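Contributing new records

If you add data, match the layout below exactly. Sequence lines come first and carry their own label; structure lines follow with theirs. Keep one chain per record. Anything else will be rejected by the validation script.
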Amino acid sequence: MSTRIYQAIPLSLNATIILDEKASHHLARVLRSAVGETVTIFNGEGGEYEAEITAITKKNVTVMLKQFHARDVESPLQIHLAQGIARGEKMDFIIQKAVELGVSHIIPLITERCNVRLDNEREEKRLQHWHSVVISACEQSGRNRLPQLARPQSLSDWLTKVQQSESFAMSFVLSPYVKTKLTKESPRTFDKPIALLLGPEGGLSDQEIALAEQQHFSALNLGPRVLRTETATLAAVSVLQFAFGDFASY
């Protein structure tokens, strides 16, 4: 597979485009690409373009879009991941792997045990950083549609939106205190997304789990062992993709 590059611009067959500064630097300085080499360009709207590098300067790389491929690796299951904000690189890891595993929406949540405090300036910087993590994960994993990344919000505000929208086929909140698990008899297809709610380090409080259950979230247990938040997220998304998505052949 050729190097995949995301560009947030309109794309069309046979167009010649100058890549942005970050992409140009990566191709010219990091990968040492040469004129005539092939790269893959996508803009998150679906499909991708096979492109040829036509010029390399000190600051820019120019490519020509030569062939369009309507390739789609999106899961038939839309997972809305509502994740209590974890500290530092843990949140980056969660977002990166969630994108690789096929989630369609990521909602960073401020919860009772969230140790991250974001003023307006820090929130904007973190959001931009997380967006770059989403892009990099799409480039690496072959996804041609970017998952939607919401602004950080409180758990109560998000649950209120969920209640008002009634947009989910099923909603789960992870809890170590219940024995409920997914069964083989669960339905396989949905015409609506699935919501998955997890806490940060330390998990969700009893009150938060109860609040989610009041909004018709089903408490779900992943087994007898205590999982770190980043492990629990990846395990839960994988279980849902196997039960309802594209990880299984049935």
